[in-house]
Amino acid sequence: MTRSRTTCDRSSRVSAPPRKAGSRRSRAPRPRRVSDTLAPAAPARTRSPWRSRLSRWDLKGSPYAFISPFFILFAIFGAFPLLYTFWVSLHAWPLLGEHTFTGLDNYQKLLSDEQFWNAAKNTFGIFVVSTVPQYALALWLAVTLNRKIRARTLFRIGVVIPNVTSVAAVTLIFGMIFAKGFGLANWMLSWFGVASIDWTAHTWSSWLAISMMVDWRWTGYNALIFLAAMQAIPSDLYEAAAIDGASRTRQFWSVTLPLLRPTILFTTITSIIGGVQLFTEPLLFAPGAGAIQGGTLRQFQTLTMYLIENGFTRFEFGYAGAVAWMIFLLVLVISLINILIVRRISGAD
């Protein structure tokens, strides 16, 4: 086998034509380089100083320009009225006449004003009476709507309908429900032998009636907020709790409620702000000439009603400004206390 291969190699060498003398071996053409086809690079242009500054400003300043509309609107419609109200509160500011600088006299008068503290007591009393059952009912609705039930979307839309209803219409209807002579509430209480109640004449009855108006309007709104927070809780936690043998009630107290603390904090702060600004419900609860006083004995006059009474009934704008700033400080202090309590509870866990 090897012999035949060597023989073939020799024969191929012999059969090859002889190369002519003086002839050169042909070479393959050399590939062209990219540098050969490109033109020589032009010298780099130097940017002008103003273009460099403009580019630097665009990089650093454009984010602030995008968020500036919010701060501009807040400064015009939020910060300026707040500061101007404080300036007014330092004066004796009647509707007509000169504005006299009085310093902190309005605040000193306010701290010893029994009507102001009565309005503060009514405001926070109505807030407590309305908020506790409202949150309990909202959590129950959220848990129910979070389950797989028929027409779940329809029920979710239905709980928001009271919130979009006119406050004035709701208050007038509830005023007829709690009317003394022909009201639905007294008619139902008569089944149990309870005498007719004048709901606007007593502190406890007026608080209860106004709280029911607030609950009817805001329970569904808070329920949807709690429902959105519940849907963000991972289902793995519930599955692990179910494997450990936890019932639905135990899952609610051990899984759902602890993870809802930030949401509960948010709704509590917004409820405090809304509760301090409560105005339409108590004003229309007992309409008439002295409606702004919240009853004959001021038994359900709120802080906002007292503010409006001083500003637009007595025309004491300086004193009304002091009331407005005191409301702002009360909301701020209560919100900070609420945040500290929630953080302390979360840290203990």
TrEMBL record:
<feature type="compositionally biased region" description="Basic and acidic residues">
    <location>
        <begin position="1"/>
        <end position="12"/>
    </location>
</feature>
<feature type="transmembrane region" description="Helical">
    <location>
        <begin position="64"/>
        <end position="87"/>
    </location>
</feature>
<dbReference type="InterPro" id="IPR035906">
    <property type="entry name" value="MetI-like_sf"/>
</dbReference>
<dbReference type="Pfam" id="PF00528">
    <property type="entry name" value="BPD_transp_1"/>
</dbReference>
<feature type="region of interest" description="Disordered">
    <location>
        <begin position="1"/>
        <end position="44"/>
    </location>
</feature>
<keyword id="KW-0813">Transport</keyword>
<keyword id="KW-0812">Transmembrane</keyword>
<keyword id="KW-0472">Membrane</keyword>
<feature type="domain" description="ABC transmembrane type-1">
    <location>
        <begin position="120"/>
        <end position="338"/>
    </location>
</feature>
<feature type="transmembrane region" description="Helical">
    <location>
        <begin position="259"/>
        <end position="279"/>
    </location>
</feature>
<feature type="transmembrane region" description="Helical">
    <location>
        <begin position="317"/>
        <end position="341"/>
    </location>
</feature>
<feature type="compositionally biased region" description="Basic residues">
    <location>
        <begin position="21"/>
        <end position="32"/>
    </location>
</feature>
<keyword id="KW-1003">Cell membrane</keyword>
<protein>
    <submittedName>
        <fullName>Sugar ABC transporter permease</fullName>
    </submittedName>
</protein>
<dbReference type="InterPro" id="IPR051393">
    <property type="entry name" value="ABC_transporter_permease"/>
</dbReference>
<dbReference type="InterPro" id="IPR000515">
    <property type="entry name" value="MetI-like"/>
</dbReference>
<comment type="similarity">
    <text>Belongs to the binding-protein-dependent transport system permease family.</text>
</comment>
<keyword id="KW-1133">Transmembrane helix</keyword>
<feature type="transmembrane region" description="Helical">
    <location>
        <begin position="157"/>
        <end position="179"/>
    </location>
</feature>
<feature type="transmembrane region" description="Helical">
    <location>
        <begin position="124"/>
        <end position="145"/>
    </location>
</feature>
